[in-house]
Amino acid sequence: MSLCLTEAQTRTLVTRLQECVQESDNLKMVTMLRLLLDELEEDTLMAKLSSKARKALTSSTLAGPGRSFPIPDKKHAKAAIMLSGKAPPSARPKIIAKARAKLAK
């Protein structure tokens, strides 16, 4: 399952999870929350491209239709997989395949 959250929503979720970690005395729960926090914090910082950088990408770096789903690095590959459900159904296999290929490198 993948969640599509805005950056603001992700930051709010991270803050609330951090509060739960501080308040919990259950070691297993704290460990799970910390793992989730690591993933969320990484995702919050991922996949940012300026307009100029995006325009400079070659077509081989783009996985979706209409210059969508840029995959210049592994962070963008993760984002492409998470967001592939927003692409037209016919484009999803190509997006996922290109993203997985980038992650395998």
Describe the overall structure.
This protein is 61% helix and 0% strand. By secondary structure, it is mainly alpha-helical. It folds into 2 domains: 7-44; 51-104, no CATH class. The mean pLDDT is 80.
Provide a compact summary of the structure:
With 105 residues, this protein is mostly helical. It is built from 5 helices and no strands.
Question: What is the tally of helical segments?
Answer: 5
Main sheet summary: none
Q: Could you state the order of secondary-structure elements as H and E?
A: HHHHH
Radius of gyration: 16 Å
The global form is elongated
Number of strands: 0
Mean pLDDT: 80
Low-confidence stretches: none
What is the share of helical residues? 55-70%
Beginning-to-end CA distance, first to last residue? 24 Å
**Residues in β-strands, percent:** under 5%
Assign the structural class, choosing from mainly alpha, mainly beta, alpha/beta, alpha+beta, or little secondary structure.
mainly alpha
Q: What's the oligomerization state? A: single chain
User: What number of structural domains do the residues give?
Assistant: 2
